[in-house]
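User: Let's play a game. I give you a shape written as tokens, and you guess the letters that built it. Ready? Here's round one.
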């Protein structure tokens, strides 16, 4: 990652990736997204991960959600990442689950030693169908109440 200075003088780290819109690039194909995102995460240094907060002050340490923000090229001050975060939460997994539970070590099934290891294990299980996306959870719920 590269250290940059924003127009307001704030220093921050960025991956320098092109900005994308997940609705346009991936639509509802979360599996294609995960086949791109998991290798990206695997290539990150363990030292670039953090738990408890989304990112440290200069964003050199990030949780899985802030790594996602870097993946979509929106890891700069002032980026409007709400659209991509909405896409992630609708199509991949709830941010509460990804960040606060799995990344931070508060999920009983993901007890790996680091946030990176826990997050990647969860996303691989999601890709393999061992975990359910929000839409799959909704479908499962609707079948039960119907």
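Assistant: Ready! My guess for every position:
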């Amino acid at each position: 990652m590269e250290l940059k200075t924003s127009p307001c003088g704030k220093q921050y780290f960025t991956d320098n990736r092109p900005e994308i819109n997940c609705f346009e690039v991936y639509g509802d194909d979360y599996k294609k997204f995960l086949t791109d995102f998991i290798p990206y995460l695997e290539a990150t240094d363990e030292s670039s991960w953090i738990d408890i907060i989304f990112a440290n002050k200069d964003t050199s340490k990030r949780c899985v959600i802030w790594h996602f923000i870097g993946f979509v090229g929106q890891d700069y001050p002032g980026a409007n990442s709400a659209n991509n975060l909405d896409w992630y939460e609708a199509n991949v997994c709830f941010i509460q689950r990804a960040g606060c539970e799995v990344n931070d070590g508060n999920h009983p099934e993901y007890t790996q030693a680091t946030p990176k290891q826990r997050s990647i294990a969860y996303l691989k299980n999601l890709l393999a169908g061992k975990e359910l996306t929000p839409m799959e959870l909704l479908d499962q719920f609707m079948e039960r109440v119907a």
